[in-house]
Amino acid sequence: MATPIEDYGLIGNCETAALVSKSGSIDWFCPPRFDSAACFAALLGTPENGRFLITPKDSSARVTRRYRDGTLILETTFETKDGIATLIDFMPKSGGCDIVRLIVGESGRVEFQTELVIRFDYGVSIPWVRQLEDEPGLYAVAGPDGLILRSPVALQGQDMRSSGEFTVAAEETVSFALSYTRSYGRTPAPLNPKQALAETEAFWRKWLHPCPSVGDWEEEVKRSLLTLKALNYEPTGGIVAAPTTSLPERLGGQRNWDYRYCWLRDAAFTLGALMNLGYYDEAKAWRDWLLRAVAGSPAQMQILYDVTGAKQLPERELTWLSGYGGSRPVRIGNAAVDQRQLDVYGEVLHAIHEARLGGLTTTRHSAAVGRVVLEHLESIWREPDEGIWEVRGEPQHFTHSKVMAWVAFDRAAEIAASNGDAEIAGRWRRNADEIRAEVCVRGYDEKLGSFVQFYGSRRLDASLLQIPLVGFLPPDHPHVRGTLAAVERVLLDGSGLVMRYETESGVDGLPPGEGAFLACSFWLVENYVQQGRFSEASALFQNLLSMRNDLGLLAEEYDPRARRQLGNFPQAFSHIGLINTAVRFARAKHGQQLP
């Protein structure tokens, strides 16, 4: 039985991350950066594929956990019949790639067991493991990869794993420090675990301190903001969609994708979330990553890149992994990198526009990127594409894609007009007007009284909820009201959450069935807010907040019948949706002014 996705907590150092289960097992860790090969891959297989377990010998121990206030320091408390102890997990901001695990005795005595199973290359490569010579601990190496574990607890090797037992009494602390290293490089210096804990706590609290209160949802917004920061690859400014790959959108199904990359469509949403809360340094770093990533021929612009902005992300399957809960295949890389998705042009121009409105200095580079992107879009916007959901069926004229092409020209026209360039502003405005006229005819079904998923279709799509949010039509327009009513009628499941689209249609080229996509439900809340339907907005927003796990984390999707999270975890898009919805709600209902 796979550990429920919501039973995991996230720790990270703004370069990579690890997932820790309620039982104290680190089941996913990709050092030294988000998209590196995992050395603990039990999340997508079995313990034999790698994990680092620290848990009481008493399997009936009561477990509670929390993040230390204002930080990404995870504290898991185990209460047994003989005592209470807390496992503290964190990744220091030390410039290395380390995980520190401290077991602190609270009362009585608690007996623990630990098991370290290291499997490099996504759970397949068994390393050589030896004892350290000058200090207690282990050194594991396979090819270019190495892990060093420093701890006073003696571990014994058996059956290609290292295990041990220890007892912690009240006011005692037992430490484990795990460091990733290149096998051909220098051995990382030992950490001082207690000092590293103090420095890590100070870093997170200092970073979070400027975050303003947002209506009634201060703590929820702060936790989402910390999660977003944890998904930031600080050396470049890129923000990954999630730190995991192949967590299924349907348990046992094939909708399993690698999300450890940076999507252009997240750009405008992310910039808005960061700037709404006053985090301009991170917003600027993300904007600059975006401009570097798309530099070059606009015809070669991709929908996603790796954390450095590199383009080559070939998709392949890891056949030796059984998949989360038997959900296969397990994929790394992402073939969507080769798709055409017209909406990303709108997201890029909207991001540049948002950055400008937020006070970020417009550079010559950003202006040049905008110009060449628009000139290319001018020649291709009439063509079909794979759309926002990256369908693997036939390309279509997706309504949302055309709307976002309109966004690109609309925002560019605004920028040009503000710069006093009336000729260019007029050129982009003519393109925007042509797209709007076409969408309102070909993307709208009179009998349904609603916009549709793609031209000629009678199917609905949650991406249509973006139409008033991006300003394509006002919230009180009859077409918008009709579309909202149709989405409520067709795409709401029994729990009031929004499905992305009707997967039974086969438009995506995949077997039907998935959970409710949480970002879409946040879009519905924003639509309610725009229309002044505050009681409905509040009810749905509270419902969404209740679907976070006990640590405040959200995956990509939610299965309301099984009451469990689905998809990659934690998902930036979900947390961005939470932040932006809370901000819109606070401004509309309370008149709150934010940075």
From TrEMBL:
**Domain of life, per lineage:** Bacteria
The coenzyme or cofactor needed here is: phosphate
Checking InterPro entries in the record gives: 6-hairpin_glycosidase_sf, 6hp_glycosidase-like_sf, GH15-like, Trehalase-like_N
Molecular-function GO term, any one: alpha,alpha-trehalase activity
Q: Ranges for the Trehalase-like N-terminal domain?
A: 2-152
Return the Pfam families for the record: Glyco_hydro_15, TREH_N
Swiss-Prot/TrEMBL keywords:
Carbohydrate metabolism, Glycosidase, Hydrolase
Keyword Hydrolase belongs to the record: yes
Enumerate the spans annotated as GH15-like domain.
220-582
EC no.? 3.2.1.28
Biological process terms from the Gene Ontology for this record are:
trehalose catabolic process
Which pathway does the UniProt entry assign to this protein? Glycan degradation; trehalose degradation; D-glucose from alpha,alpha-trehalose: step 1/1
Spell out the reaction equation it catalyses.
alpha,alpha-trehalose + H2O = alpha-D-glucose + beta-D-glucose
Would I find Hydrolase among this entry's keywords? Answer: yes
The Swiss-Prot or TrEMBL record describes its family as follows:
Belongs to the glycosyl hydrolase 15 family.
Protein's name according to its UniProt entry: Trehalase
Organism of origin: Methylocystis bryophila
Provide the taxonomic classification. Answer: Bacteria, Pseudomonadati, Pseudomonadota, Alphaproteobacteria, Hyphomicrobiales
